[in-house]
Amino acid sequence: MRTLLVGGALAVIVVSLAACGGSSTSSSSQDALQRQADLWAIDQIERNFHKATSLHDVDLMMSLWAPHATFTYGPGDTATGTKQIRHAFLHESEAFKPTSHWVSDTPAYKVRITVNGDRGTLNFDCHYVDIKTGKVVSHTAADQEVARMNGKWLITSMVGGSAPLTP
Questions:
Q1: Banded pLDDT at 47 (limits 50, 70, 90)
Q2: Mean of all residue pLDDT scores within the chain
Q3: Distance CA 161, CA 157 (A)
Q4: Any idea which architecture 26-162 has in CATH?
Q5: What are the residue boundaries of the structural domains of the chain, listed by start?
Q6: Inter-axis angle of helices 2-21 and 23-55, to 10 degrees?
Q7: pTM of this prediction?
Q8: CA pseudo-torsion sign 119, 152, 108, 81
């Protein structure tokens, strides 16, 4: 009986130590994989932002924002919360006006993303191209703070502004 007890205790110790041995490599791989997934998810905000603007799809646009987010879109013009942000896009944004037939795009090299746990940043330029003429009619920039909320990355703060058309 004593041999069985000692053998069982030894087996538990060996299994415990073996389980701990590979955890740092696995954890490091998991962290790297999670970081890549977070960067991809934050990049989808930029893609959907431009899709929403190009299609004048305010519901898609609003799906990108946290409930109590802020959106500064001009000197002294800040919308707080999704109701005010929706209003700003529908009534203040040139890109959302029914007479604007623009495609919104960002060159890939003008997108910058950071991630640190459940917080990050997303910065990009917006090139608005008139569908009829093919000419850039507007060029803006967006500096955003983003956060993972309930498993989804959302904009918590955005400051829009003008940007020069340079590489």
A1: very high
A2: 86
A3: 13
A4: Roll (3.10)
A5: 26-162
A6: 40
A7: 0.80
A8: negative
